From TrEMBL, chain A:
It holds the Pfam family DUF2102. This is Methanogenesis marker 6 protein. It comes from Methanofollis aquaemaris. Residues 125-156 are annotated as: Disordered.
TrEMBL record, chain B:
This is Methanogenesis marker 5 protein. NCBIfam families: methan_mark_5. Pfam families: DUF2112.
TrEMBL record, chain C:
InterPro entries: ATPase_BadF, ATPase_NBD, CoA_E_activase_dom, Dehydratase_Activator_Redct, Methan_mark_15. It comes from Methanofollis aquaemaris. Signal peptide: none annotated. CDD domains: ASKHA_NBD_MJ0800-like. NCBIfam families: CoA_E_activ, methan_mark_15. Residues 151-405 form the ATPase BadF/BadG/BcrA/BcrD type domain. The keyword Transcription regulation does not apply. This is Methanogenesis marker 15 protein.
Length: 156, 150, 412
């Protein structure tokens, strides 16, 4: 078996996803470069990847999050950016995790909405809202306001 | 800061929420990063070597498929570290690291058996549910902070 | 350098079992590349629900949707490799259904395999080689007539065989137990040449197959070095004179067994097993030894016996031998024990492998074990069909190699 020598030891990589009406992935990249202070940033179709020591990365992603707090989502990544084991170009297609992201990215607008509303709630209101959390098996009644919007949208 | 296991362990939404509300998310990326950054024998793509399914014997018997044991070698140690967990019940389309239903059942079982606080929730499918989702997660995570400081 | 054969991988678990690298390595050894068909999430959701098999594991859903994309021609591939964890019931169901679905709805050669963490590239090599041969060398496999003077050598795990062919006739044969790979090959080549009344210089092209194919291929400067799956299916339909239409080829070898579903002489799906020796020719060898008869006498002995009077049906050679020893100690007739051993091997092959290929008549049995009549009878009973055992069936690999090698005389 061949020896394995890892690259980027001691670093962390974070994905930064953006799903915002006000901020495109490109805008995000430009603004992130301005404050990156040399930390490695790589643009992607959905946002960014940031790689560096935890001490470098943590404050940077917190600053990036502030660009649009309810529309930017961040998660850890196991691989450094451009790693050929996970690279689309080498696999003949997306790695399986990409489809998982695709699935969640269809849902994040509800999260954005939730974050905005919950930010304005006090603890008691949050508790009340929490009691109505979505649960498996619970019916999902169509939101009245949404229904009204749909009906109105159908009008010629 | 509390270590919160996220399920699906690949979830962007949960990873973000846990970190956003001040805790440490434990998921696939943490387990995979450790392997990707540790020297050893080459075993692409994930640096999971044939030794890992053997390590997985700690969580699943030898007649359990190697893919389950290999995944448990990644998740088992994270479950042991976890002090709380958030479980989204229906990750039908969480592939790869969460691609095996049998492993997923076992992960959930171990999390519930540990006696740590667990929040069960489903993916939101509307704006209203998004509010309920975020509120529940926030309340749960805030509660953990208070428990910690108490 | 020929273009790489592109093998689409449909799988669940190899990355987490530490064997994905073994798959990559086996593919690269035969100048192929493994890739994962790229589909969007909506394709996964749609493909999976249309297929109608409601599995829980997301990676199996993905495999199903990828298979649909391949069959519908939305993704190009030369061959398909399906791999799932050994001992996973859910995956085994998907593996079998996908193999059948792809086989029935496309011309893509497909092989399925269930791996453990111990699976190595060596184990996968023969299967990958067969896949790439079918994809890359259809023209070569289309050969139906042997031309000129050619030599085929089959270096098997138990025996080494050689055949000299001239103008579509077998003119010399050689057979020896495999001891030292090269020495045994030299021996059988000498025997075959002697019978043919020819010298090595007279040979116009050489083909090798079997476990020792690379070693002896190098030594004899063979034009064709080929795994036994394609060679044996070719040899089988050639010898049985069933070169057109469907056929099923069963070869119970000394170490592993092949079951191949063939169409016009070209393998479509195949399995190659060999995890448990109770289903191998080796067990019959041990039985013969314990009964004090030569292996050639085991078949006739078994034909005189009643297999169902002796309980014996183990996939493990050690447990099988225990049953054998017990039966003899209890006073069972040697004929009955011989028949039971034949039935046991046939049953293991039937249960472990024949479920994975679509049995289409004629069923052709080849290899040394096809000369054991008791085994052929037992297999025929299990499959409820008349089994075809062609002449020279024990030389199947050599004949297939000699036949295919003749394509190289004029540099095809």
């Amino acid at each position: 078996m061949a020896e394995y020598i890892p690259k980027y030891q001691g670093t962390v990589t974070k994905y930064v996803f953006v799903e915002s009406p006000l901020l495109t992935a490109k805008d995000l990249a430009v603004r992130a470069y301005e404050i990156s202070a040399g930390v490695m940033i790589k643009e992607t179709c959905f946002g960014l990847q940031v790689t560096g020591t935890p001490e470098e990365v943590e404050p940077l992603i917190e600053a990036i999050r502030e660009f649009d707090p309810t529309h930017i989502f961040i998660k850890d990544r196991g691989f450094p950016p451009g790693d050929e084991r996970r690279c689309r170009a080498n696999l003949g297609g997306a790695r399986p995790g990409y489809l998982g992201h695709e699935f969640e990215m269809q849902r994040v607008r509800y999260i954005s909405h939730g974050l905005e509303r919950v930010a304005r709630m006090d603890a008691e209101e949050t508790g009340k809202a929490a009691a109505r959390r979505p649960e498996e098996g619970r019916a999902h009644p169509l939101d009245l306001k949404k229904l009204k919007e749909l009906i109105e949208a159908e009008e010629p | 800061m509390v270590k919160v296991f996220i399920y699906p362990a690949t979830s962007l939404i949960l990873s973000d929420m846990v970190a956003r509300f001040g805790h440490e998310p434990l998921g696939s990326a943490i387990g995979i990063r450790e392997r990707i950054q540790t020297p050893g024998f080459e075993s692409p793509p994930l640096q999971i070597t044939p030794e890992e399914p053997k390590k997985g014997l700690k969580w699943a018997a030898v007649e359990v498929p190697s893919g389950v044991r290999g995944r448990m070698a990644v998740y088992g140690p994270l479950i042991e570290e976890a002090e709380a967990a958030i479980i989204i019940k229906d990750p039908d389309y969480a592939f790869g690291c969460m691609g095996c239903a049998r492993t997923n059942e076992l992960i959930q079982f171990h999390l519930r058996n540990k006696g740590i606080p667990v929040l069960d929730v489903a993916y939101p499918t509307s704006d209203e549910e998004g509010v309920g989702f975020v509120a529940a997660v926030k309340e749960f995570l805030t509660g953990l902070k208070m428990e910690e400081s108490a | 350098m020929t273009e790489k054969v592109r093998i689409a991988q449909l799988s669940c678990g190899p990355e987490y079992s530490g064997v994905q690298k073994e798959i990559y390595d086996a593919a690269s050894m035969v100048d192929a590349e493994v890739f994962f068909p790229d589909i969007a999430l909506s394709d996964v959701q749609q493909g999976f629900s249309e297929f109608g098999l409601d599995v829980r594991s997301p990676d199996l859903k993905l495999a199903i949707a990828r298979a649909k994309a391949l069959v519908e021609g939305r993704i190009d591939a030369d061959a398909v490799f399906i791999a799932t964890c050994f001992r996973c019931a859910e995956a085994a169901i998907v593996r079998n259904e996908l193999r059948r679905y792809i086989h029935e709805n496309s011309a893509l050669p497909v092989v399925s395999y269930s791996f453990t963490e111990r699976t190595t590239s060596g184990t996968l090599l023969t299967r990958m080689e067969a896949l790439t041969t079918i994809a890359r060398r259809r023209a070569l496999l289309a050969r139906e007539v042997q031309e000129g003077i050619t030599l085929g050598i089959d270096s098997g795990s138990s025996t080494t065989k050689a055949v000299v062919m001239k103008d579509n006739e077998i003119v010399g044969t050689g057979w020896l137990p495999t001891t030292e790979v090269l020495k045994s090959a030299d021996g059988v080549v000498d025997l075959a040449l002697q019978e043919a009344g020819l010298r090595l210089d007279d040979i116009e092209a050489i083909g090798t197959t079997g476990y020792g194919r690379y070693l002896i291929g190098k030594k004899f400067n063979a034009q064709l070095i080929q795994e036994e799956l394609t060679v044996n299916s070719k040899g089988a339909v050639y010898l049985a004179d069933r070169q057109h239409g469907p056929a099923t080829v069963i070869d119970i070898g000394g170490m592993d067994n092949k079951a191949i579903s063939v169409q016009d002489g070209i393998p479509g799906t195949f399995t190659m097993g060999g995890i448990c020796a109770g289903a191998s020719g080796r067990f019959l060898e041990m039985t013969a030894k314990r009964l004090g008869v030569d292996i050639t006498e085991l078949g006739p002995l078994a034909m005189k016996g009643m297999g169902n009077t002796v309980p014996m049906n183990s996939y493990c050679i050690v447990f099988g031998t225990q049953s054998l020893v017990n039966a003899l100690a209890e006073g069972s007739a040697r004929e009955d024990v011989a028949a039971a051993a034949c039935h046991s091997v046939a049953e293991q092959v039937f249960e472990q492998q024949l479920q994975e290929v679509d049995i289409k008549e004629p069923v052709i049995m080849v290899g040394g074990t096809s000369l054991i009549q008791g085994l052929v009878r037992a297999m025929g009973e299990l499959l409820q069909t008349e089994i075809v055992v062609p002449p020279h069936s024990q030389y199947i690999g050599s004949v297939g190699s000699a036949l295919l090698a003749s394509g190289y005389i004029r540099g095809e």
